[in-house]
Structures are given as structure tokens and as C-alpha cells.
Design goal:
It contains 13 helices and seven strands. By secondary structure, the chain is of the alpha+beta class. Helix 11 packs antiparallel against helix 12 and helix 12 runs antiparallel to helix 13. The structure holds zinc ion. Pfam families: DNA_primase_S.
Length: 297
């Protein structure tokens, strides 16, 4: 969690820290109780000051102390780190080996640039109301998956300040997870395999060819209602040649691919809605062919 990427003048930041920053709520959320526990007092805060000065291992006894320090330093950004076995501000005097991270929230980052391959309205650092729909869909899917499949209840969604959103999970069971366990959770919920360029191999369909794994099945409930409006109508993702060629890569059925490619090349005016209709009607014609089963049609 950070106040990064907020491009405002120093006096504006100072009034934000003095008058608006929700110290008490942040304290309550990090600490889980009204009186300070190790979850707050042993928590690292790292400040970035004007001129890129980076101050690590700050810690505070109370929310008031934190506010005083933040207002004094007026950082351009600050980060909330893990809970350590000793107070971070006492790091230098801690016995060797007695200063180690012991707990930290489970964090997911959703960045708008993750949607560059599919959004058509903006790219890179640009963001508008239309492409924000991708983020809102991602929040709906991830929030439900985390609650239903892992049973976590203490979820905090934080707007990053410019182009994305972060999820912080603070259930005790989540903060105690090892790095390996965190990776396993992310892997279980991943749809796109990382580092693979070829579109047709990117989709993480485990448990059988073209069969949606259990972790992803429930997402259809959330995504089906917005698919037509967002992907087909608003973003018109398959309007351009590049868009519909990418779509064809996901259809692992050469004769159907060829039929659709011809249809769409011959008539460049066909919209994404028309093309989706074409896939459905062509599929109906081939329903008897056992090898063609799609998870989404
Ligand atoms: Zn946009």
C-alpha cells in the first residue's frame, strides 16, 4: 500500500497528510484491535522524501505518532511493510537474527496495463472511464474467488493513485502464509500463463483440454453478464484484423478457424457482436463434432 504516483505539489501533499489521510482507520485495519499490538508497533513504514531520499525501518507506537512523523517528513510516497519480530526502529540494536519479518498481508495488484492486449480505448499509462470497466470486472472476480475459495474475510481494496488497484488481505491465516503458499494461491487463480507469447497457449486451462478449472468456473457467472456490453459493444475487441486474428488463435479447430477467417476477411464491416454471432452459429453447425468443445460459447 502506498501513496505512490500521486503527482501533486508538496503543500497539497502536506494538507492531505494533515487533514485527510485516514491514520486511525489504517491503524485499526493493520492492528486488528483498538489498542496497539505488534501488528502495528512492529510494522515497517518506508518513506520516500523529496529528492528520492528513502527512509526504511520506521515504526510507531500509535496512530498519533505516525501522523506526527508523516506530517513532519511530508513524504512524496510511503509504503507499509511487514510486521517484524522486533520494532523496526530498533533494528540496529536488535540481536543478530532477532530481526526478521514474521507477518505480512497477502497482496494482489491489478494494473491497467495488464489489459493492454484487450483494451482498445487507451494504452500504457492512459486510463478512462471505459477501460476502468476491466478493473471493476477484475475486482468482482477476485473478491468473490478469494472469499469463496479461501474463506478470507478481511479484504481491503486500495486505489493505487493512477492506473490500478491493490487488494490487501489481512486475515491471520493469510498474513502467516509463506512465499511458496502465496505463489500457489496466485497460480491457482491465474488465467493467463506468464511469459508465453503465443496466445493459444497462454490460457491456463488445467484439468483437461478446454475444460475450465474449478477455480475459474465461477468467474463465468460474474463475467458473462458484462461480456457483451464491455468486450463486444464498448471495446469492440474483435473489430480490427489484429483483434479477430487473436480471437481465432483461441479456437483450436482448424476448419472452423478457416470458415470464420474467410467470412471476416470478406466483410471487414462485421462488428464484434456480429463476429461472436458467427462463432456461435458456425459452432452449432459443427455440434456433432466431438473434438470441438469451447469453455465460453
Ligand atoms: Zn480507456
Amino acid at each position: 500500500m502506498s501513496t505512490d504516483e500521486i503527482d501533486v505539489s508538496t503543500p497539497a501533499m502536506l494538507s492531505f497528510y494533515r487533514r485527510l489521510y485516514p491514520y486511525k482507520s489504517i491503524f485499526n485495519w493493520l492492528n486488528h484491535e483498538h489498542t496497539p499490538t505488534r501488528r502495528f508497533t512492529h510494522r515497517e513504514f518506508a518513506f520516500t522524501l523529496q529528492g528520492d531520499v528513502y527512509l526504511r525501518y520506521n515504526s510507531f507506537a500509535t496512530a498519533e505518532e505516525m501522523k506526527k512523523q508523516v506530517c513532519m517528513l511530508n513524504p512524496t510516497r510511503f509504503e507499509i511493510g511487514p510486521v517484524y519480530s522486533a520494532r523496526p526502529r530498533d533494528k540496529k540494536t536488535a540481536r543478530p537474527g532477532a530481526f526478521v519479518p514474521v507477518q505480512r498481508e497477502l497482496v494482489f495488484d491489478i494494473d491497467m496495463t495488464d489489459y493492454d492486449p484487450v483494451r482498445t480505448c487507451c494504452s500504457g499509462a492512459d486510463i478512462c472511464r471505459r477501460c476502468w470497466s476491466f478493473i471493476s470486472a477484475a475486482v468482482r472476480v477476485l473478491d468473490n474467488a478469494i472469499r469463496d475459495q479461501y474463506g478470507y474475510r478481511h479484504l481491503l481494496w486500495v486505489y493505487s493513485g493512477r492506473r490500478g488497484i491493490h487488494l490487501w488481505i489481512s486475515d491471520k491465516e493469510a498474513t502467516d502464509l509463506t512465499d511458496e503458499q502465496r505463489k500457489a494461491i496466485v497460480g491457482w487463480l491465474s488465467v493467463i500463463a506468464p511469459g508465453i507469447k503465443e496466445a493459444s497457449k497462454k490460457l491456463n486451462f488445467r484439468g483437461g483440454h478446454f475444460t475450465l478449472p474449478p477455480s475459474l468456473r465461477a468467474t463465468l457467472t460474474h463475467l458473462s453478464p458484462i461480456f457483451v456490453k464491455l468486450i463486444l459493444e464498448d471495446q469492440d475487441c474483435f473489430g480490427s484484423t489484429e483483434g479477430w486474428e487473436t480471437l481465432l488463435e483461441y479456437i483450436h479447430h482448424a476448419p472452423l478457424q478457416a470458415t470464420l477467417r474467410k467470412l471476416w476477411s470478406d466483410d471487414p464491416t462485421r462488428s464484434s457482436v456480429d463476429k461472436w454471432g458467427d462463432i456461435k452459429s458456425e459452432r452449432r453447425k459443427k455440434q456433432g463434432e466431438k473434438e470441438f468443445v469451447s469453455p465460453v460459447l
